[in-house]
Amino acid sequence: MPQWDATGPISTIIAWAEKILYIAVAVLLVTMSAFVIIQSVRDLYRLDLSTSLTADLAIVLNDVLFAIIILELLSTVVAHLRKGGFQVKAFLYIGIISSVRRILVLGAQLSANAKLPARAFRHGILELGVDAGVVLVLAIALLVVRSRGARLPSVARATREPEPTV
Of 2, 74, 81, 96, which residue is the least packed, with the fewest Cβ within 10 Å? Predict the structure, then answer.
């Protein structure tokens, strides 16, 4: 079986194509976060102050936290373009933010629905507990990664040295 030439023209083309695609993803993430933030501002502006604000604010909070998640993904893409490799800390942060987002939104929805059936309320409380457990596990994983100062090894790149393993 022929050996892959890491310095050949095909490797160079693939490396450039990868960078171009990452830049396209970054542009899409910026665009998406801008749309989400604009929609959040519109929703906040259109709040009906004569009704219960909890449900409406939960929607706005959900959108704002979603924008933060998109921006964290953007920072991961930018970090990959700058340093290469898989940024494990960034994905742990994204997971924590996503779980906390779900906890906050679900908590607001549960408190806004005073006439929620007992079964649906128990289901919501169970989901809150599971999400809290996910946050705890991800926070512990983040502490372990930070204490070791480790990064997961990236897939071997044709033009880069392999990263240290965990």
Answer: 2
Query: What is residue 86's three-state secondary structure?
Result: coil
- pTM tops 0.85, yes or no: no
C-alpha distances in angstroms, 97 versus 37, 64, 81, 131, 135?
17, 11, 23, 11, 8
Compute the distance between CA of residue 161 and CA of residue 22 in angstroms, rounded to an integer.
20
DSSP 138: H
Closest CA to 116 of 70, 61, 55: 55
Pairwise CA distance, residues 164 & 166, whole Å: 7
Tokens of 125: 């409380």
| pLDDT tens-digit series, residues 57-96 | 878 888 898 999 999 899 888 888 888 777 788 889 889 9
Per-position DSSP letters for 3-50, written without gaps between them: PP-TTSHHHHHHHHHHHHHHHHHHHHHHHHHHHHHHHHHHHHHT--TT
Neighbours of 87 (CB within 10 A): 20
DSSP state of 144: H
Are 103 and 132 within 8 A, CB to CB? yes
